[in-house]
From TrEMBL:
Keywords of the record: Membrane, Transmembrane, Transmembrane helix
Record organism: Bifidobacterium commune
The protein, known as: Fimbrial isopeptide formation D2 domain-containing protein
InterPro entries cross-referenced by the UniProt entry: Fim_isopep_form_D2_dom (IPR026466)
Region (Disordered): 245-264
Membrane-crossing segments per the record: 615-635
Gene3D superfamilies reported in the protein's UniProt record: 2.60.40.740
Lineage: Bacteria, Bacillati, Actinomycetota, Actinomycetes, Bifidobacteriales
Length: 643
């Protein structure tokens, strides 16, 4: 009888029930083997890799009717075992027969296994022919349908009633580095082991039900004469905890040239190449299985459309949009891009509707590109959604939404996180002679290792570091904002050079220069042109250092050296721990009366002053009248002298 499922069946059954029924064989005998007592309650079953906190229930479905053991080099080994449903309740026998038929078996009505489904399971489903006791085809059992049988059995009402009435429960505990659950003093025979814990107690799915026989005889013999036969009385829990690993593989600039960001981390404008890897999960016991790989990123990491590729094993899969309604499954992967509001988090969902047809533990690879479009702190997390409970599994209406009722019990776990950040500094250009007056128009360069860096202009007085090639023009000179919007949105009136007096709560950009997108390191800020209103002002130069602030998950910015002796104040760290603000004092003015008058008039006519008083124009008129009177007097005296 050939009921093989092919390669997928081989792999799945190797982790499913077929691996553990070798103790139920018939017909392997030896002339020197001796029978042992299997009637006592001295059987043991140990479940390895059980998972801390998982609760297991054991229910006997068949008895050992006899067993032969032979000593090999002083070690007792099991030569043969026969199992039967003798003594089992009629309802349980019927449940076993029903499950066998549901899984595709035909239980004989005559012969050695007449009306004895466990006898039949113990032989045919391990690959043996009852008429050929010398058959050496036991390994064929790994291609059988035992996984189907034991899953169907769990669904039978007769089995559930029996399990509830007489099942023995054990909770897995840590022992010698192995989280295991051990059942002792069991009547020797064949058992179904159920994981009855709450789904995902330890982050893994519940184990599928498994079939295993107890140890044999008073000496608790577990090893078979045939070396490839799994031990009696021992079984690995068939649970699974899928995970996904994420790696940043390489980086290119906007024009596709590969750049090295090993030291700095990703920077603004970079295109990052990511690789996600997972494995085809254990789907044994499921009729339908939900499996999805997710990739969630903050708003400053944008997916490059069309860049994603998916491979399972050596086969590249077609990426298609999620269908509006259930369709016939094809060997393709659903790709969905979503954005959450108001945080702007972006998620890529890769759903695998064909997952049960892939080879167990084959490698799943996903690669895609993403562009860094914002500065600051960025996070990127990979996770997985998967079915966790064979008792509540997806049905045919489950498409790509794990929260839908049609998808059964689905667990989500984030298993790999990638984060990085770039930082900023703000330069506030204050008039050193007039309090709270900010000056615009000054020009600066930012140097690293003595070389000026290139920047992209984002707006008035706002620049971002942009290494590598860019599709738009870059500059090495940054200009302090000269925007003349007054305090609280009022328009400034300026009769002289652009300058503004700001209230403490003002958000104006006049006199500000924001330099963003900076990695950790030491920089030199070099002023190359003075403010527009003070053409003779001293040019500033100072060194700053950006170091990691571990306690606040950010950066600490410090002033290393002020080459202009006191004109640069110590920085104020920003509240978001992503930068700092420097206050710069512009001190020197043009000499002479006009320069002094210009300074006075600009201070008087600042919009902050205008906003607070209605006499500014009157004061200016008085000053002008005084000047005119002085000039008139001088001219009269000169005229009198000339006469």
């Amino acid at each position: 009888m050939n009921i093989s499922k092919g390669l997928r069946g081989v792999a799945a059954a190797a982790l499913g029930a077929a691996t553990i029924l070798a103790c139920g064989i018939i017909g392997i005998g030896s002339a020197s083997a001796s029978p042992v007592d299997v009637s006592s309650n001295d059987g043991e079953i140990t479940i390895h890799s059980a998972g801390a906190g998982h609760v297991y229930k054991a229910l006997k479905i068949g008895d050992y009717t006899f067993a032969n053991v032979e000593e090999v080099s002083g070690t007792p080994k099991i030569a043969s075992i026969q199992t039967s449903t003798v003594g089992s309740p009629a309802t349980l026998k019927q449940a076993i027969a029903n499950a066998a038929k549901s899984a595709g078996a035909t239980v004989p009505t005559s012969g050695q296994c007449a009306s004895d489904p466990v006898c039949w399971i113990s032989s045919h489903w391990l690959g043996y022919d009852l008429d050929d006791p010398s058959s050496a085809s036991k390994d064929e059992g790994y291609k059988g349908h035992l996984r189907d049988f034991v899953t169907k059995l769990q669904e039978e009402p007769g089995f559930k009633d029996a399990a509830d009435a007489s099942g023995i429960s054990k909770t897995a505990v840590e022992a010698n580095g192995d989280t295991s659950a051990t059942f002792t003093n069991l009547p020797e025979g064949l058992y179904v082991i159920q994981d009855v814990s709450e789904a995902s107690v330890d982050g893994s799915s519940n184990s599928i039900p498994v079939l295993v026989g107890t140890s044999v005889g008073p000496n608790k013999c577990k090893t078979f004469m045939k070396a490839t036969t799994p031990n009696a009385g021992e079984v690995e829990a068939k649970k699974d905890a899928p995970s996904v690993d994420k790696k940043w593989v390489s980086t290119t600039d906007e024009e596709g040239t590969e750049v090295d960001r090993t030291q700095s981390g990703p920077l603004y404008g970079d295109v990052m190449h990511f690789n996600l890897t997972a494995k085809v999960p254990v789907t044994t016991g499921f009729n339908k299985y939900f499996f999805r790989v997710t990739d969630t990123a903050s708003s400053g990491i944008e997916y490059v459309s069309g860049s994603a590729k998916v491979r399972v094993g050596n086969s590249e899969k077609n990426l298609v949009d999620v269908p509006a309604s259930p369709t016939a499954q094809a060997d393709e992967v659903y790709l969905e891009e979503t954005t959450s509001n108001p945080d702007g988090m972006r998620r890529l969902n890769f759903t695998f509707p064909y997952i049960m047809q892939y080879q167990l533990h084959d490698k799943i690879e996903i690669e895609y590109d993403a562009k860094v479009t914002q500065t600051g702190r960025q996070n990127n997390t990979a996770g997985v959604d998967w079915s966790t409970d064979v008792r509540n599994q997806p049905n045919g209406n489950c498409v790509a939404d794990p929260s839908a009722s049609d998808c059964g019990v689905v667990k989500h776990v984030d298993t790999s996180t990638f984060s990085f950040a770039t930082y900023n500094m703000v330069l506030k250009n204050y008039d050193g002679e007039l309090q709270n007056v900010l000056l615009g128009g000054a020009k600066f360069q930012l140097l690293k290792d003595g070389k000026p860096l290139e920047f992209k202009k984002l707006g008035d007085g706002s620049y971002v570091y942009h290494p590598g090639k860019a599709k738009s023009s870059l500059t090495k000179e940054m200009t302090v904002s000269e925007r003349k919007t007054g305090v609280q949105g009022a328009r400034a009136i300026s009769f002289f050079q652009p300058r503004v007096r700001l209230a403490a709560d003002s958000n104006e950009s006049m006199g500000n220069l924001k330099i963003d997108g900076l990695p950790l390191g030491i920089y030199t800020v070099s002023q190359i042109a003075p403010p527009t209103s003070k053409p003779n002002a001293e040019l500033l130069k100072f060194d700053v250092k950006f170091t990691e602030d571990v306690s606040n998950h950010g950066v600490y910015v410090s002033l290393l050296k002020d080459y202009t002796q006191g004109l640069v104040q110590q920085p104020v760290q920003n509240k978001d721990h992503l930068g700092a603000t420097f206050s710069l004092n512009v001190s020197k003015e043009p000499s002479g009366l006009l320069g002094a008058l210009g300074s006075i008039s600009n201070g008087i006519l600042g919009p902050g002053t205008l906003a607070r008083t209605g006499v500014s124009l009157f004061i200016l008129l008085i000053l002008l009248c005084c000047l005119m009177a002085i000039a008139t007097t001088i001219m009269r005296r000169r005229h009198q002298i000339s006469r």
